[in-house]
Design a protein that fits this description.
Number of helices: 3
Strand order of the largest sheet: 1-4
Structural class: alpha+beta
Strand content: 15-25%
Largest sheet: 2 strands, antiparallel
Order of helices and strands: EHEEHEH
Distance between the termini: 16 Å
Number of domains: 1
CATH topology: Alpha-Beta Plaits
CATH class: Alpha Beta
CATH architecture: 2-Layer Sandwich
Bound molecules: iron/sulfur cluster
Shape: globular
């Protein structure tokens, strides 16, 4: 599953947009949005940078087993 952003927690700091290496996340005004979820490779950079804990995702089983 790609990154999921909790709009209630997001404060629009833009760090996830800045750090996503694949340009998956874009800002829509003051809210971060996962615009290209199919491109997400679950690197975790967005979640790591989000001080608000607004980003979560579920790792595919194949990645956990690797
Ligand atoms: S890093 Fe977190 S708080 Fe900042 S824009 Fe992204 S989701 Fe929102
Ligand atoms: S997990 Fe990585 S690739 Fe996916 S949205 Fe976050 S920073 Fe981008």
């Amino acid at each position: 599953m790609p990154a999921v952003i909790d709009a209630k927690k997001c404060n629009g700091c833009k760090l996830c947009d800045l750090y996503c290496p694949l340009d998956v996340i874009h800002m829509e005004g003051k809210l971060a949005v996962v615009r290209y979820p199919e491109e997400c490779w679950h690197c975790g950079a967005c979640r790591q940078e989000c001080a608000r804990g607004a980003i979560s995702f579920t790792f595919p089983w194949a990645m956990l087993a690797a």
